[in-house]
Amino acid sequence: MDDFSAVLDAIAFAARAHRHQMRKDKETPYVSHVFRVCLTVRQVFGIDDPRVLAAAVLHDTIEDTTTDYDDIIEHFGPEVASWVQALTKEKRLPDAQRESEYMQALADAPWQVHVCKLADIHDNLIDSKHLRAEGLARTIRRSREYMAALDARITEPRVRAAYRIVANLLDQREKAV
Q1: Out of 16, 29, 33, 98, which could bridge 93 as a Cys pair, Cβ 3.0 to 4.6 Å?
Q2: pLDDT in tens, 59-118
Q3: Domain total for the chain?
Q4: CATH number of the domain enclosing 163
Q5: % the chain with pLDDT above 70
Q6: Active-site residues: which are they?
Q7: Domain span at 103
Q8: Taking CA 40 as the corner, what is the angle to CA 34 and CA 41, rounded to the nearest 5 degrees?
Q9: Distance from C-alpha of 12 to C-alpha of 107, rounded to nearest angstrom
Q10: How far apart are CA 125 and CA 36, in angstroms?
Q11: Can you give the chain as a three-state secondary structure string?
């Protein structure tokens, strides 16, 4: 997976996996979110590693589709699969336990996972304008929780810069509420 073709393969894979899903506005195809997360990693955060970009595009496939970890290993290798797995919540758990375990997994994950999660938070904040007040408050609260879980664990300078970008956006969204 040294070349850009892995990213193109991940885009096609994600488009197929999410093909029947819509965003919360019920008008936007869900796959636009994973594409924007990948673009945020590349264009906003300046990370161009094709493996990281592939993980960004695939970050919701295990959690939100019938795709499993083995499917990701088969198509993209164990490294990308491990990153996507770290970005996956265990939906069979009660909400509080699920979120707690997810935040711990995020905190313990490598920088590649951190940058993908930061891009996910960034896109969810950018795409929150259609949410009602309670949905926006929930997005902001969860974003703060994820940011807190990541904060002390980020040592990679490019990821620290990405963290600051997302923190600033989060501050702006909170002030606008």
Answers
A1: 98
A2: 999 999 999 999 999 999 999 999 999 999 998 999 999 999 999 999 999 999 999 999
A3: 1
A4: 1.10.3210.10
A5: 99
A6: 63-64
A7: 5-176
A8: 95
A9: 29
A10: 12
A11: CCCCHHHHHHHHHHHHHCCCCECCCCCCECHHHHHHHHHHHHHHCCCCCHHHHHHHHHCCHHHHCCCCHHHHHHHHHHHHHHHHHHCCCCCCCCHHHHHHHHHHHHHHCCHHHHHHHHHHHHHHHHCCCCCCHHHHHHHHHHHHHHHHHHHCCCCCHHHHHHHHHHHHHHHHHHHHC
Amino acid at site 96: A
* Under 8 Å between Cβ of 13 and 47: no
Q: Which residues pair with 22 in a beta bridge?
A: 29
Retrieve residue 80's tokens.
């990308």
Residue 171 amino acid letter: D
Neighbouring CB atoms inside 10 A of 143's CB total: 23
CB distance 31 to 14 below 8 Å: yes
* pTM (two decimals): 0.95
